[in-house]
Amino acid sequence: MRIWLHNRYSTHGTAVGYNGQNEKEIRLNEMWILAFDPGAESSFRLITVASGGLAIRIEFSNHQGKEAHPAVTEPPSEAQTTSERLIYFKERKIGSGIFGRVFRLIRARDGQYCAGKVFTPPPTSKKRRRGETDPV
Ligand SMILES: Nc1ncnc2c1ncn2[C@@H]1O[C@H](COP(=O)(O)OP(=O)(O)OP(=O)(O)O)[C@@H](O)[C@H]1O
């Protein structure tokens, strides 16, 4: 089951958080997925509820007996403005490498699963200052 929130006429935008994430991310005219349950049985049609400027679209897709969408790694994103940047919610850690930790993410706009790496900055102790000579 997918539940979407689309603010069509909001003056100040809408913020949707998950587990305390992205709570301060306010968007205008953005579509948000509010719930996703891959094991949900399909027994309803698409429902759209419109109330004033708030429209809630409820999509009951049939995922019964199917695995959740496999995690995929996306190509690097183009440079985007803050309001265009896609929003991801961290679901859980799925691995780690030398350069950082890898998380299973849910893309807020369409509920697709993705894999995303959070890079760990290298320790600063080995950084050399400008003008410092190479170690022998
Ligand atoms: N697209 C993905 N789907 C599922 N799991 C993934 C995906 N990408 C990474 N992982 C998991 O995260 C782990 C670490 O991935 P990462 O890309 O960081 O590996 P790495 O190349 O060994 O790391 P590094 O480049 O930091 O040395 C993988 O071993 C795997 O378990």
UniProtKB/TrEMBL annotation:
Which InterPro entries does the annotation name?
Kinase-like_dom_sf (IPR011009), Protein_kinase_ATP_BS (IPR017441)
Q: What species was this sequence derived from?
A: Podospora comata
Keyword rRNA processing among record annotations: no
Task: Show the segment(s) annotated as Disordered.
Answer: 117-136
For ATP, which residues are the binding ones?
K117
Q: Which UniProt keywords apply?
A: ATP-binding, Nucleotide-binding
- Could you confirm whether the keyword Nucleotide-binding appears in this record? yes
**Top-level lineage group:** Eukaryota
Recorded protein name is Protein kinase domain-containing protein
